[in-house]
RNA sequence: GGCGUGUUCGUCUAGUGGUCAGGACGCUGGACUCUCAAUCCGGAAACACGGGUUCGAUCCCCGUACGCGCUACCA
């Protein structure tokens, strides 16, 4: 055991005592059962969709219990830090309306960046050292690698424990000698775990869990030759969550294995243990198997992906809530967003992120919005991701409204579901704006369905020549029907199916020619409505272009 | 390797010691549309495997397989 003087000499002389911090961050005055939760994103890139997922649960559980939700940036791995990441996080949280009660600028339990909490960590490291619950370890990278290699060779569990913990029982003289030589060191926790011992704990989602006790003398403070001196996740978790008075730690299930270590740390520090809830991670289909969504390999693992594409935040939240608590997926969207999440109802398996289902949900949701609402949302999105579209929408707002008015609005029983995300707008409605529309002139274009160019040309020319901008939908469509007959199309799909060789196609295919000419797409709102909105001149311009 | 954790239609899941194992997305057939989509109706589609316990097991127990995670001075 080191002399207290030796220990203290390792730290700044004005380093506060634990009692100082305890007073600085007193227990919260909160109602019975209030949960204080926190998310600890690591600023190593974009926010992972899993982070948003867990943050949403944190936010919800804290709110419904009258507690608080904290975002604490876990930037203790400075080598992997990416500049600007924190701003990205904040934008993402804002987009989805999952904002913390306490973070950088708000809250009295900060600072909320771990890199700014060095003094706090050092206080508690010194305390552990004074009590001999931690010790200095001067092992080099090579020695550590050698230990691991030997353990693997003899099929022993790897780690720094028992006889492998070479610095655990060094004498004060030996330590002093290393110190005098100026060798860098880390501080390790002196684990009280014994071989064969087991620990069990309760997880709010999974119930009783059992694990062999930790025996590893984990590193709690990183290398002494770095500044600032930062703790490892394990130690920061114990110190921060205690001092921030967090009482429910919701995190990914990859932490389950570390709980025994965390429990030992809380006990050694004299902190009250916290409750844990381990969430199953979001997965991704990969060939026949599945794996965790990876920030590096999967674009959709990044929250930015959803923001950039313009998925409505409510739809994404609704989808995610359904994954958290399947019960919520059966509720109408607005109710599901209000209904409380229940930890005990969380799945334990790890769901695959199904973008197709998300899109279905998003389409349903956008269909409930009014034209003006949609334009507003698209404009907000486009201001960042499609600036050109912003000016089109404001310069030609009437066209935009008219376009979105087609088959949409309160008087329509089955509104169109052709918008899933804001970036769909150009493809689905761009043709309403002359400035965004590109004439279809290539009669071999595959959108036209493979009809002969001559037929297409003749049909389009005929249509344009006799075109009347009729107000009645049936009469208007009568023009297509008549021409279809004249050019040899079957009067209806059934007839065509019965005798496919006798016709180039049916009225369907004929109508598609006009659809593609007018909209550039195989899918569009009602043709008559489009033609009326576009106006006769524009209709003729587009159809003539196809005629050649 | 060790430890942990998980496994109901393709996907998200509901569910119980006796159910025709339910729903949703997707897929698919049809209806409605003399046009796209939407909508409506129908269909195919699952209890990982092997042992127990039991009159009976998808459900309880034990194994096996497979997935995932941890085993870092990464979180």
UniProtKB/TrEMBL annotation:
The keyword Protein biosynthesis applies. InterPro entries: aa-tRNA-synth_I_cd-bd, aa-tRNA-synth_I_codon-bd_sub2, aa-tRNA-synth_I_CS, aa_tRNA-synth_I_cd-bd_sf, Glu/Gln-tRNA-synth, Glu/Gln-tRNA-synth_Ib_cat-dom, GluQ/Sye, Rossmann-like_a/b/a_fold. Residues 507-545 form the Aminoacyl-tRNA synthetase class I anticodon-binding domain. Keywords: Aminoacyl-tRNA synthetase, ATP-binding, Ligase, Nucleotide-binding, Protein biosynthesis. Residues 36-319 form the Glutamyl/glutaminyl-tRNA synthetase class Ib catalytic domain. Coiled coil: none annotated. Belongs to the class-I aminoacyl-tRNA synthetase family. Glutamate--tRNA ligase type 1 subfamily. This is Glutamyl-tRNA synthetase.
């Amino acid at each position: 055991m080191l002399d207290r003087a030796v220990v203290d000499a390792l730290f700044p002389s004005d380093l506060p005592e634990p009692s100082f911090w305890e007073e600085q961050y007193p227990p919260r005055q909160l109602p019975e059962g209030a949960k204080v939760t926190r998310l600890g994103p690591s600023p190593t890139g974009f926010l992972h969709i899993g982070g948003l997922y867990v943050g949403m649960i944190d936010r919800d559980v804290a709110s419904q219990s009258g507690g608080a939700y904290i975002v604490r940036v876990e930037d203790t791995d400075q080598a992997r830090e990416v500049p600007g990441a924190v701003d990205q996080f904040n934008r993402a949280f804002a987009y989805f309306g999952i904002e913390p009660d306490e973070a950088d600028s708000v809250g009295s339990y900060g600072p909320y960046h771990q890199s700014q909490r060095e003094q706090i960590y050092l206080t508690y490291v010194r305390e552990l050292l004074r009590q001999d619950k931690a010790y200095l370890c001067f092992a080099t990278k090579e020695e550590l690698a050698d230990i691991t290699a030997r353990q693997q060779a003899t099929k022993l569990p790897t780690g720094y424990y028992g006889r492998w913990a070479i610095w655990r029982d060094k004498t004060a003289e030996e330590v002093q000698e290393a110190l005098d030589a100026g060798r860098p060191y880390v501080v390790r926790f002196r684990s009280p775990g014994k071989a064969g011992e087991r620990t069990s704990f309760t997880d709010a989602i999974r119930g009783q869990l059992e694990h062999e006790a930790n025996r590893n003398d984990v590193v709690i403070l990183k290398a002494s030759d770095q500044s600032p001196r930062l703790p490892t996740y394990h130690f920061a978790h114990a110190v921060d969550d205690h001092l921030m008075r967090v009482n429910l730690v919701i995190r990914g299930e990859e932490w389950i294995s570390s709980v025994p270590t965390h429990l030992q740390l809380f006990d050694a520090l004299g902190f009250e243990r916290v409750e844990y809830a381990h969430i199953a991670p979001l997965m991704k289909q990969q060939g026949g198997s599945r794996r965790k969504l990876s920030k590096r390999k999967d674009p959709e693992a990044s929250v930015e992906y959803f923001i950039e594409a313009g998925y409505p935040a409510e739809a994404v939240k609704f989808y995610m809530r359904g994954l958290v608590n399947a019960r919520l997926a059966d509720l109408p969207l607005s109710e599901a967003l209000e209904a409380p999440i229940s930890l005990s109802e969380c799945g334990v398996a790890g769901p695959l992120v199904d973008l197709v289902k998300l899109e279905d949900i998003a389409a349903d949701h956008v269909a409930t919005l009014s034209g003006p609402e949609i334009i507003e949302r698209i404009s907000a999105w486009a201001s960042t991701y499609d600036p050109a579209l912003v000016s089109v929408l404001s310069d030609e707002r009437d066209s935009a409204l008219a376009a979105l008015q087609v088959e949409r609005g309160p008087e329509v029983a089955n509104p169109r579901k052709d918008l899933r995300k804001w970036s769909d707008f150009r493809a689905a409605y761009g043709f309403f704006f002359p400035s965004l529309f590109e004439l279809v002139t290539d009669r071999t274009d595959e959108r036209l369905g493979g009809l002969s160019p001559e037929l297409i040309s003749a049909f389009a020319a005929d249509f344009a020549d006799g075109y009347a901008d009729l107000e009645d939908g049936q009469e208007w469509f009568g023009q297509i029907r008549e021409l279809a007959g004249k050019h040899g199309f079957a009067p209806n799909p059934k007839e065509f199916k019965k005798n496919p060789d006798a016709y180039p196609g049916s009225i369907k295919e004929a109508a598609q020619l006009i659809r593609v000419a007018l909209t550039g797409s195989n899918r569009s709102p009602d043709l008559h409505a489009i033609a009326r909105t576009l106006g006769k001149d524009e209709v003729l311009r587009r159809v003539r272009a196809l005629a050649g």
